[in-house]
């Protein structure tokens, strides 16, 4: 309590840009004006800051729980993989059961200490960094549904053992109505021996979005930190968050910080730090991907440990100021089970005036798995439901890019998004085209209305142009299946013929008569595609390639580039074709 008073007192002392809830509602244009301070005022402010820094006190790194001494030869120590093979029938049974219930090797995980040590993989500059009082306290919220005992409790122990006690207000575990017995009385008994840990049970299965909100409701810290239920926090992971979200750092108040992730597997298993990257988006499925840091961001950052501005975030592992989280509309409670909420939050934060950064000095391991063990038959429908809610509220006309690749999605239920649209209005958020040009200037954005989209079938044979294996095998013709996918194409205003992923382009050249697909050469802001990828799509359905002066031919013998003729094999029926 003392600590929280201290930190809010400092807000008043610095007394400048830290917006209170009411003040945040000022028009953005206003706030931009006020942040361009005249130099004198700026100096004045710096003086105050310097004065305050004279009595700087270091954060005490002592955690709530001390990591017990461990045998360095024990399985998994130092973050190493365990290479254990189940041998007895009982072990084999446990191994199989663990895999089925978790989609990862929970049996191997159970052999690893809940307190195992992890290596310090941070850049040396991270290790030199010092953190001073006062910093806000965080509530760590871990939601879980049918998590394995060892991974869940290793997450909890790693938080308690790797966070300075004075920065960790509490750990809130939210049980999203799990059915496993070990998560009932045994979990309660175990947790009652741990300091600062609370368990909240949801009476019904909420899905991860509403489960997180339930956790936030119980949180008393100034900062909220969300973790998946199979994470391991590494030394020094928390301080950078609390520092960046601190009111000592007023201009950073609207920040949203993500952890730098370590890929993390049990059997075959190893710990590798993710190369420094930022979040991107797959326009086709509206899912999160990692991307290399673009040139402009590289130049903006002065040091390899500076935060990386990230257009999107992975979803599971992040911190945010609690007030800011609430002000921004927390989460969309209309979202179900799994997926979509991370992209929704990413767009919302940027469009409504916030910033997302990845902190390269904060490392957390996460157990990735190939599939969700809990996903039922309608998991996909729920994901589309969530994605539609996101696209309808935040993407303006750009949502069409998503829909036209999956026309059936328009018919999927998405519930009512009126409240979320009102939220966007009330917060005076910017539109999606602003996001694309200011936050993500390197992202290739498909045409909102391409010249054509859908399948391209040959007049003579009736066969469909098919990408087969994008970038790997020449394109070909196959009986039309009408399901989009490998037979979906877009004719762009830049004169390309792009595949469904949007990343591969039809390409022809002098030295070969077949047609391949290759990475599209045209990127945002350049002069257009290379000559090999340029096509003129004529009203007659002829696909003419100016560089080679040949035409795409789809006779019975297959797909090839031929001298142009009036043959029906060179005329194509192009879906949704609006000639220029
Ligand atoms: O119904 C459910 N109720 C839950 O409480 C389903 C899941 N959950 C819990 C679950 O126990 C886990 O703690 O929700 C958490 C996330 O589910 P996972 O671990 O099965 O999925 P994931 O790791 O693929 O999840 C990623 O994508 C999700 C999309 O909705 C969320 O955003 C997750 O937080 C996100 N995880 C990460 O970002 C971790 C880092 C991954 C990367 C890169
Ligand atoms: Mn996860």
From TrEMBL:
<keyword id="KW-0472">Membrane</keyword>
<dbReference type="GO" id="GO:0030246">
    <property type="term" value="F:carbohydrate binding"/>
</dbReference>
<dbReference type="GO" id="GO:0005794">
    <property type="term" value="C:Golgi apparatus"/>
</dbReference>
<comment type="pathway">
    <text>Protein modification; protein glycosylation.</text>
</comment>
<keyword id="KW-0735">Signal-anchor</keyword>
<keyword id="KW-0333">Golgi apparatus</keyword>
<dbReference type="Pfam" id="PF00535">
    <property type="entry name" value="Glycos_transf_2"/>
</dbReference>
<keyword id="KW-0812">Transmembrane</keyword>
<keyword id="KW-0328">Glycosyltransferase</keyword>
<feature type="region of interest" description="Disordered">
    <location>
        <begin position="5"/>
        <end position="40"/>
    </location>
</feature>
<feature type="compositionally biased region" description="Basic and acidic residues">
    <location>
        <begin position="14"/>
        <end position="35"/>
    </location>
</feature>
<feature type="domain" description="Ricin B lectin">
    <location>
        <begin position="452"/>
        <end position="575"/>
    </location>
</feature>
<dbReference type="InterPro" id="IPR035992">
    <property type="entry name" value="Ricin_B-like_lectins"/>
</dbReference>
<dbReference type="InterPro" id="IPR000772">
    <property type="entry name" value="Ricin_B_lectin"/>
</dbReference>
<dbReference type="InterPro" id="IPR029044">
    <property type="entry name" value="Nucleotide-diphossugar_trans"/>
</dbReference>
<feature type="region of interest" description="Disordered">
    <location>
        <begin position="59"/>
        <end position="89"/>
    </location>
</feature>
<comment type="similarity">
    <text>Belongs to the glycosyltransferase 2 family. GalNAc-T subfamily.</text>
</comment>
<dbReference type="GO" id="GO:0000139">
    <property type="term" value="C:Golgi membrane"/>
</dbReference>
<keyword id="KW-1015">Disulfide bond</keyword>
<keyword id="KW-0325">Glycoprotein</keyword>
<protein>
    <recommendedName>
        <fullName>Polypeptide N-acetylgalactosaminyltransferase</fullName>
        <ecNumber>2.4.1.-</ecNumber>
    </recommendedName>
</protein>
<dbReference type="Pfam" id="PF00652">
    <property type="entry name" value="Ricin_B_lectin"/>
</dbReference>
<dbReference type="InterPro" id="IPR001173">
    <property type="entry name" value="Glyco_trans_2-like"/>
</dbReference>
<dbReference type="GO" id="GO:0006493">
    <property type="term" value="P:protein O-linked glycosylation"/>
</dbReference>
<keyword id="KW-1133">Transmembrane helix</keyword>
<dbReference type="GO" id="GO:0004653">
    <property type="term" value="F:polypeptide N-acetylgalactosaminyltransferase activity"/>
</dbReference>
<keyword id="KW-0808">Transferase</keyword>
<dbReference type="InterPro" id="IPR045885">
    <property type="entry name" value="GalNAc-T"/>
</dbReference>
<keyword id="KW-0464">Manganese</keyword>
<keyword id="KW-0430">Lectin</keyword>
